[in-house]
Amino acid sequence: MKKKNVLKSKLKKDDQVKIMCGKEIGNTGRILKIDRKNGSVIVEGCNMVKKAVKQKKQNQKGGIMEIEGLLNISNVMIVCKKCGPTRVSIKRDEDKRMRICKKCGEEL
What we know:
single chain, mainly beta
């Protein structure tokens, strides 16, 4: 059997990111979920889409709900606290693997 390609990314869940292109350009939010197989992310409060939901239980309501939609992982950029949107590099110290801001050199 052939092995499926999985996208390598330096982004993690709960990272603060900024959307760099698309209809939500300029918005920032936290990453809720990363799908490395399809190369997409879900960002909190961004790319809201409407979805029809069926009532599953007596106490749960059905109808049209707004949820976060998928964004391509290449359309988001991690936000450094010091210098804003930036690229990420990896630095290794002994057994540790740290993500470093390319602009200022601070750990993310």
